[in-house]
Write the structure tokens for this entry.
Amino acid sequence: MNDRSLTSRPYRGRFAPSPTGPLHFGSLIAAVASFCDARAAGGEWIVRIEDVDLPRSRPAAERAILAALERYGFAWDGPVLRQSERIAIYEAALDRLRSSGDAYPCACTRRELETAPIGAGGERVYPGTCRDGIPADRAHRPQRAWRLRASAARIEWRDRLLGPQAQDLASDIGDFVVKRADGLFAYQLAVVVDDAAQYITHVVRGADLLASTPRQIFVQQRLGYPTPRYLHVPIAVNVAGEKLSKQTRAAPLPGEPLPTLLKAWRCLDQPLPAGSAEPASVAEFWQWAIGAWNPARLPPVPMLPAPAAFGPGSSREV
């Protein structure tokens, strides 16, 4: 199956935050882009909580995220899906990969891989140590990760903003992890299974995830899933050039939505209202923004500077 199998389906998009902290301005940019893209196409927009990394997930953060989305006027279709409730489904997908010979156990440690060569994308390329069986000097280790064999096939796709993309997985990444040694499922498997299960036709997300796309397309191919259309929008960075994130202490979204929504809109370089009148309410903003949304105007760059107010050390209001 490929992305042609999705052309007959109605548009279905999603926003999938991880509940490790409150929403910040970088999250808002991705949410605004994905929501407007779905609604402008007359499609559905769903919210998925990506809490597969259980040790880092916080129930209070999930509640804060959903409350912020509501406060900012986002309306999603259907119930919120949580990855933590879908472990058995991921295990079934991994069983299929095991049965086909695509996935194999790996006993390598992170430290042992620190000397692996670096691929074109800046990541360590797995050298295939356990591909043909776990070496005797590592067989005593009780924990096993599971890796997906990366074929020599070149993964090619077209991003709706950034144009043609390609990657040679075997030489740039190597066999990659789909289940970690600590028993947690990797993002690359979980997100693919969820997108297929939820009939996602379009993925609109930050450009920081562009490098993950070929791995996800490869997993889709191995499992026989269709490939959504991808649109990677610029991510917001602070004055140090770091992506706004919980790790870089990005400030939570302010309590007053409208000014922040307008700042996100301007960061996406979307058309402003004719004349000098701006929307007077959140509801008016969304009515106008959905009608004005134009992906062709998005800045074709991976990063954009965020307003200084949303960097570290700013207001912690949620």
